[in-house]
Amino acid sequence: MACAGDSPGEGEEATGETEQGLSTASASIVSAVESAQHNLGGFNIDGIEPATLTVFHLHVNTKARWVGGITTDLSWDPAKVRQGQTLDVSRTSSATGTMKVLWTLTGTLRPLNLFDVDIGEIPIAVDLASCNPVLHHDAGTPEEILCTATSPGISLVPGILPFEPYVELAIDIHFKAKRDAAKTTRTLLLGDEQGAQGELAINDGSQNDPLAMPCNKPAGTELEYVMDPFEWTPVSVSAKQQPKFSIGIWLPSNPITIYPLIKSPSIADLPFGDFPAIDVPMSLTGAGGSASLGTLQANNVTPTASAGSFSGQEGSPVQFAVTTTSACPITGYRWEFSNGTQSFGPNPQRTFGDDGVFDGQVTVTDMTNLSGTDSFDVTIANKAPVADAGPNTSGAWGTQITLNGQAVDPGTDDQATLTYEWNFGDGTPGTGGKNVAHAYAAPGDFTATLTVCDDHVCDTDSTLVHVRKRTVSVSYTGLNVGTFSAQATLAGSIVDELGQPVVNGSLAFNLAAADAGSANTNAAGNAARTIDVTLGAGTYPVGVSFAGNGFYDGGASGELFAVSRIATALSYTGSLVGGPNKTVNLSTKLVDALDRPLAGKLVSFQLGTQSASATTDANGIATASLKLAQKNGQYQLTTSYAGNASQWTSASSSVNYTIGNPK
Fold first, then answer.
1. Is the distance from CB of 43 to CB of 90 less than 8 angstroms?
2. Is the dihedral of CA 403, 404, 410, 413 positive or negative?
3. Scanning 81, 102, 232, 305, which has its CA 20 to 30 A from the CA of 265?
4. CATH of 472-564, one of 3.40.800.20, 2.60.40.10, 2.40.50.90, 1.20.58.340
5. CA-to-CA distance for 581 and 398, rounded, in angstroms?
């Protein structure tokens, strides 16, 4: 609180006055503030005034209202009322205030204790003009401030004659308040739009309010500094009242006329009663005002750009950046390159298709359309192409195996001029081109290497080529039937997957799962072998197989082979005449179909009713002795061989045999 000046009247608008045309502009904003009227409570005064023996029964009710004004002096540099600048608004505030106290007195007086006199309602108003809100607290100054006043005296004993005593009732009132800063909401108006806004603490020291001047508002926009509303709320307010009697003498105003009577100064002040202080929650509020800061001037600070040098590799994005200084935000970035291309933004990325040194210019434009430029250069290094020989592949020897290579050059401008060369890994000369076909002369695993070059460097990649043996088709082409103990021809052929005969391939034959020998194929891929059939009559598997070699896989084929018994024949070789009761030798020869004598075979002889048997010797001859016991005559002599189930067929022959001399 302070004691200075007069506060604005209630309901009076705060105004701002601005001085223009100076290096420092200034204005003032005045706000009228006031509190609500607060009831400070009431108290009774009962007693007797001893000088006049006046008995009194009084009641006092007290109300108070605090009114005042806060003046804020502003100053600023009008040259800073410009787009992109920071305008420092300096503030110094002061306050005035008055505590308006109203006592209402009611009750009765009984002079000389004779009769009661009703005093009605007596209002007593006092303005404590020294109660000024103090907007801050400096170190070393009292934390609590006091406002003190005494009510006008209320005459309890009216004066009639000079030099009679008078008695008045008066009330002292003391206010204590803990000081605090005022508060307001500051708003920067930009024409019809609200700009920056914030809560401010108002004190009577020098304060600074930095304001960013907008770049997004056009030059010529009216700027207004608004402080509204205001509030000042002390930490605490308390009020203490003390009633007292003042006693003095009525004096003549004129020695001649005597009247009217006037009061002498108080001879004695007699306080009475003990009335404690009460807390009063006071808060002063009021509307604020505004001050014109002038019109917004156009930005006059040209932005600067600093780009420098950049580097990278072809095919990889190069990050660009520029350092700028400007009063207003940069809203546009345009990058122009010597190859005729453009990019936009503060940190663009650009990929170059070839190595080299490029230059360019970057232009930055701020929100107010002011621009600045800078030159830059970019060094792009070459990067090797990436070769890809393709996936591992395979094929048969002697066939065309395709190799599909490719390559990607990070520099797109080099892609069309890449060169390709293959090394097949088998000692044969390489060839060019991405996609090639090569026939390997022999089976095996080979590493094929692709070399790809741009105009500076090369890259290689390899793939595994598995060259396999050719598959074959093996066929049995020999006989499917044979005769026991006769010869039979077994034959076969080998043809590879290309339909070509396999020459000098070893074919192994088998009959009835037993080795039947082997033979090598001729130029046509065929081979044959003659065997002796030793198997009995029946059906047997016959097959041919090829084990394979360094160039061909193996293979096999099988069919069925039917063996039949070999035919036999008997021819009688003995005498055809014998005498009765004579012993004769009968003989016959047993041969097979190939006229080979069969030894060890049992041959039967049947002569008429007589029979005999004998076993063939090494020459196939069987001889049996027979004593002729039949009468003379001609008889049929039959020789027979029974054969067996698996090897030889049966045989028989008949001749005429004569006994004696027939008539």
1. no
2. positive
3. 102
4. 2.60.40.10
5. 89
Domains 308-381 and 472-564 alike in fold: yes
Report how far residue 607's alpha carbon sits from residue 588's, in angstroms, rounded to the nearest whole number: 13
**Per-residue model confidence as pLDDT tens digits over 513-537:** 999 999 999 999 999 999 999 999 9
Distance between CA atoms of residues 574 and 596, nearest Å: 19
pLDDT (tens digit, 9 = 90+) per residue, 171-197?
Answer: 899 988 887 788 999 999 999 999 999
Domain 308-381: give its CATH code. Answer: 2.60.40.10
Tokens for 646, please give them: 């698996």
In degrees, rounded to 5, the angle at the alpha carbon of residue 71 between the alpha carbons of residues 69 and 76 is 165
- DSSP E strands, 382-429: 386-388, 393-396, 400-404, 406-408, 419-423
Q: Cα(177)–Cα(1) distance, rounded to whole angstroms?
A: 8
* Residue 501 DSSP label: B
Query: Tokens for 120?
Result: 């009605």
Task: Please state, in angstroms and rounded to a whole number, the distance separating the CA atoms of residues 508 and 116.
Answer: 161
The sign of the CA dihedral 570, 575, 580, 583 is: negative
**Distances in Å between the alpha carbon of 54 and those of 110, 115, 618?**
6, 10, 193
Domain 386-468 has CATH 3.30.420.10: no
% of the chain exceeding 70 in pLDDT: 94
pLDDT in tens, 585-631: 999 999 999 999 999 999 999 999 999 999 999 999 999 999 999 99
State yes or no: cis peptide before 265, omega within 30 of 0.
Answer: no
Tokens representing 110 are 């009984």
DSSP-assigned beta bridge partners for residue 359: 377
Assess contact for 409 and 385: CB atoms under 8 A.
yes
Cα dist from 394 to 436, 449, 499, whole Å = 14, 15, 20
CA distances from 475 to 313, 341, 542, 559, 584 (A): 65, 73, 11, 9, 60
Name the class of domain 568-659.
mainly beta
With a CB cutoff of 8 Å and minimum separation 6, the contacts of 259 are 252, 253
Annotated domain spans of the chain: 25-293, 308-381, 386-468, 472-564, 568-659
Rounded to whole angstroms, the Cα distance separating 216 from 83 reads 8
What residues does 408 pair with on adjacent strands? Answer: 386
Question: Which of 326, 359, 362, 358 minimizes the C-alpha distance to 346?
Answer: 362
Q: What is the DSSP string of 74-99?
A: EEE-GGG-BTTPEEEEEEEEEEEEEE
Nearest-angstrom CA–CA distance, 537 and 362 = 105
Structure tokens at 96: 């005035």
Contact indicator for 87, 73 with CB cutoff of 8 Å: no
CB 480 within 8 A of CB 507: no
pLDDT band at 115 (very low <50, low <70, confident <90, very high): confident
Report, as an integer, the average pLDDT of 277-301: 94
